[in-house]
Design brief:
The protein has 8 helices and 2 strands. By secondary structure, it is mainly alpha-helical.
């Protein structure tokens, strides 16, 4: 699935806003709470998404390679002010993807040269699914916007089975009876709604 640049940027804006809303809903006593990502606390999850956003300007704007960036975004990138750090990283990622011509070229990812549109689509889907994880972790509203669910479902479906082989995702599970698109998306990525 490759959407036009305007659609990608709209979904990207919405996905970042959704995750931002959840980050700002984290109470000070919830940062160590567990999430559906069994190895990650709330803070670990937000740190992961923040680090992902930090990569975007380097990869998209600077045309850097994974080797160029090295371990710059490993470890704790949130520091003392996780909400502010997330906000700044999300703004920078959005600015990079929104720049004139940014979605027209390739980026260098760990698995090789990839169209920037594909990278943006992956980032959207990741933010959507992790917004659900964060919602579950902090007890926030778990219903995701229909347009974002539809986008992520269409994006992830072709390669969902391969994701669990990476070790970063749980194996797909059977969706519940009478499932809806959100339940299918979550089940595809090994999550029980």
């Amino acid at each position: 699935m490759r959407k036009d640049a305007a659609t990608l940027l709209t979904r990207h804006t919405e996905a970042l806003a959704l995750f931002t809303d959840r980050v700002h809903a984290v109470r000070d006593d919830q940062w160590d709470e567990p999430t559906p990502c069994t190895e990650w606390s709330v803070r670990d999850l937000v740190n992961h998404l923040t680090a992902e956003q930090l990569w975007v300007p380097d990869l998209v704007t600077e045309q850097a390679t994974i080797e160029d960036i090295g371990d710059a975004y490993d470890g704790d990138v949130l520091g003392e002010h996780p909400r502010r750090t997330w906000d700044a990283a999300a703004r920078a990622a959005h600015k990079a993807f929104s720049a004139e011509g940014a979605l027209e070229g390739p980026v260098q990812l760990s698995y090789g040269e990839t169209p920037a549109t594909a990278y943006c689509a992956q980032m959207i889907s990741d933010a959507v699914v992790h917004a659900w994880d964060l919602s579950r972790g902090i007890g926030a509203e778990e219903r995701l916007p229909d347009a974002l669910v539809a986008f992520a479902l269409e994006e992830v479906a072709p390669y969902a089975a391969e994701l669990s082989k990476s070790g970063l995702f749980a194996p797909p599970i059977e969706p519940p009876p009478g499932d809806d698109p959100q339940s299918r998306l979550l089940a595809m990525l090994g999550r029980r709604a």
